[in-house]
Fold LysR family transcriptional regulator.
Amino acid sequence: MFAKLPLTALRGFESAARLGSFKAAAQELHVSPAAISHQVKSLEAFLGVRLFERSSQNVRLSADGERLHPQLHRALLDIQHGLQALSPPCASQSLVVSTTPAFASLWLIPRLGDFHRLYPEIDVRLHSSNEVVDLLRDASIDLAIRAQFTPDPQLFQQPLLEEFFGAYCRPDWQPPTADSPVELIDVPWLSSSSAAVDWPTWCAKAGTPDWLGTARFRRYDEEQHALQAAIIGHGLVLASNVLVAEAVARGQLVGYRPDIRLAGARYSVVCVPGRERQSVVHRFSEWLREQALMAQAGH
């Protein structure tokens, strides 16, 4: 039934399509770039269509290549999943999770001990970066946790947490008087193009625009640094309810004017379609969903 399937050529094409380079595919599969080129040409001859548009500088997928790649990628993932299911239950398994440094340190890592306790055989490795990883090209990443305003239609999506932005301070923080300017901790927050997340927007909504004229701003580039400054007592911070949740739960920070909220994104678990069915990905995704439900319930 499958005797005529060009499996080696299919694997070479999938790697080249995902990585966008014959050279990169050759390195991944431990063959020469010429071998990848030969495999792709043989697959093109087998199918009777051109899968790549070639130039002297690079290669890019043709329309037929774009149509074939996601189907082939899912099929190979299913094969890999089936083989992994035959591994002994006690065998160590790894899971690579991509997310931002702020989400990793402020939300995920404080909870990760619970996952290690439940699934000691799964080795979770965090890939933290503010750069968005192309999951369709980087197969080393199993799943990502992202704050999104517009979901990527090419990826599987599992909603996790709804975000909004509010002002937070130490429990003993006192609002400014006429003689003392307010200290505002400032950090660049990302939001949708139609809604700014900054102190002028918050103050306008809160009815305190006069704060801005005399405010002392404490500026930071990283979210976790801004929250630490607020915990120490350096002023009022405008922060994501998701990232500030642990500090609030520990009583280190409280909401100031909690009725004033600025729109945020939706945190979601995303992966290449098909990977959500893999055992380790499914277990971690379900655990994340349970943790998110407990966080929203205040536990």
User: Anything to note?
Assistant: The first strand starts at residue 52 and ends at 54. The domain at 93-159+270-296 is CATH 3.40.190.10 (D-Maltodextrin-Binding Protein; domain 2).
